[in-house]
Amino acid sequence: MPSLPNDRVKMPEQDPNVRNKNFSEVALGYNPEAAIAEAKRCLNCKNAKCVSGCPVNVPIPEFIHKIAGGDFKEAYETLFTQNALPAICGRVCPQENQCEGQCIKGIKGEAVAIGRLERFAADFTMNDPALNRSIPQKPPAKPTGPKVAIVGSGPAGLTCAGELARKGYDVTIFEALHEPGGVLMYGIPEFRLPKALVKKEIAKLNNLGVAIIPNVIIGKSITIDELLADGFKAVFIGSGAGLPKFMGIPGENLNGVYSANEFLTRSNLMKAYDQESPTPIFVGKNVAVIGGGNVAMDAARTAKRLGAEKSYIIYRRGEAELPARKEESHHAKEEGIIFKFLSYPTAIIGENGWVSGLECIDMALGPPDHSGRRSPIAKEGSEHLLAMDTVIVAIGQSPNPLIRQSTPGIATQKWGGIIVHEDTMATDKTGVYAGGDAVSGAATVISAMGAGKKAAAAIEQYLS
Ligand SMILES: Cc1cc2nc3c(=O)[nH]c(=O)nc-3n(C[C@H](O)[C@H](O)[C@H](O)COP(=O)(O)OP(=O)(O)OC[C@H]3O[C@@H](n4cnc5c(N)ncnc54)[C@H](O)[C@@H]3O)c2cc1C
Questions:
Q1: Mutate to test the pocket of ligand 1, among 85, 188, 298, 322 (most ligand atoms within 8 A of CB)
Q2: Rounded Cα gap, residues 197 and 435, in angstroms
Q3: Which of 127, 166, 268, 369 could form a disulfide with 375 if both were Cys (CB 3.0 to 4.6 A apart)?
Q4: Going by C-beta distance under 8 Å and a sequence separation of 6 or more, which residues neighbour residue 202?
């Protein structure tokens, strides 16, 4: 319960020294009493700025008002009108920069915990079989509209598919991996986003009539032109940004060096932490994760849970510049992750083909660069060696070039992002739309969903 009227209701969490040895969820969620207390903090503003802060325009005051009145299922139904994945967004959205960043309550105190309330309404309804059964609005018995193909089953593809299926379009998602969900399944760890929950959210789309075909690589198994010739009247590309970047420093080819993408996929999707899993994962005593975003935090926290004695974040700027959500870096610190700020790797050192150390140089912060952040400058002569067995590179991802290479008529940025018309998400190729990380580069779940939604509206207009 809040100690001051302006304080938000605390989120119960697993003890840091217990949770850093298991993969169960860190945040345990509000109970009904806590959710009602938090919901009652909402001022129900007439001109609700929180709604405009949300890329999918969830009717925030309405759903919170329903929680305050104890109508949890109605709260969920209100959420579901605009957001097909509320249990996911309630957990991983950067609310502090979006809806909660606009909350009037936040001016003099703490913003209403909109994300936690969203999570509560979704969990409460989905965990009650009787309530859950009645949730997705029934689609037409058989889709009657034209066929639409979706490339990729991450949040962008799932959202675009859900929007179109609700309108009666005959939607098929083609997914390269064996499990749908994109980063939600292979990237974000179980302790932040339980996979059973992602599967439940995806099952709701199946109920809406969306077909998901796994193990199909568009551009290899079949091309977009072949899909169009095969009767699909429009295609949405939501293929994400799954191509990891490396630093280009000596030693990146040693055993014990991973991209964060590979490391997290082995752990999350292939369940490498489970002794029964046929996919191995090597984690040494000392693990260095290079980078400062959510991906880096996830990799360092996963390494700790997999048995690393010391798991480091090596970041070239200072703590104030960390791009990760504050909540994530705070949780990482609580779990014993060691942060080395203003440190830049110059070489990975090896012995017998395996990583044995990481050479770093100290940095200082100079004037702001084009991103507005102060740029790191190396301090000459400050090179030093850290003993490491594993190095995980988490400095960003870009879109895979396969779609561009296999689809004539699609233009891309130099860094690989697909070029679209911003108001419709249409590419230059007639009937082909794109959105999410494939267009923006690595961004957020909710921005990918917003793009999927925008594209669905444009596809509907195009096809009618
Ligand atoms: C480790 C990690 C942690 C993150 N944490 C957060 C967070 O806390 N909050 C947040 O908001 N965002 C977070 N993000 C970012 C967020 O997950 C992404 O911005 C979002 O998932 C992008 O959605 P998408 O649908 O565009 O792409 P993705 O989720 O990448 O999905 C793309 C899908 O397309 C499939 N695909 C690719 N190419 C093909 C092809 N040729 N044929 C068929 N299928 C294909 C892929 O297998 C994948 O399933 C995180 C990202 C990572 C990697």
A1: 188
A2: 24
A3: 369
A4: 153, 158, 180, 181, 212
CATH architecture of 147-242+398-463: 3-Layer(bba) Sandwich (3.50)
Tokens of 75: 């709260």
Residues with CB under 6 A from ligand 1: 92-94, 151-157, 174-177, 182-183, 187-188, 217-219, 238-240, 242, 264, 294-295, 298, 400, 402-403, 436-438, 442-446, 448
CATH of domain 246-395: 3.50.50.60
Distance of CA 142 to the CA centre of its chain: 32
CA of 398 to the centre of ligand 1 (A): 11
Write the residue with the smallest CA distance to atom 11 of ligand 1: 444
Homologous superfamily in CATH for domain 16-133: Alpha-helical ferredoxin (1.10.1060.10)
Distances (CA, A) of 176 to 151, 182, 197, 215, 288: 9, 9, 21, 5, 30
pLDDT per residue as tens digits for the range 311-333: 999 999 999 999 999 999 999 99
Candidates 350, 359, 338, 337; CA nearest to 256 is 350
Read off the pLDDT of residues 274-308 as tens digits, 9 standing for 90 and up.
Answer: 778 888 888 999 999 999 999 999 999 999 999 99
Q: Return the best residue to mutate from 445, 449, 453 for the ligand 1 pocket (most ligand atoms within 8 A of CB).
A: 445
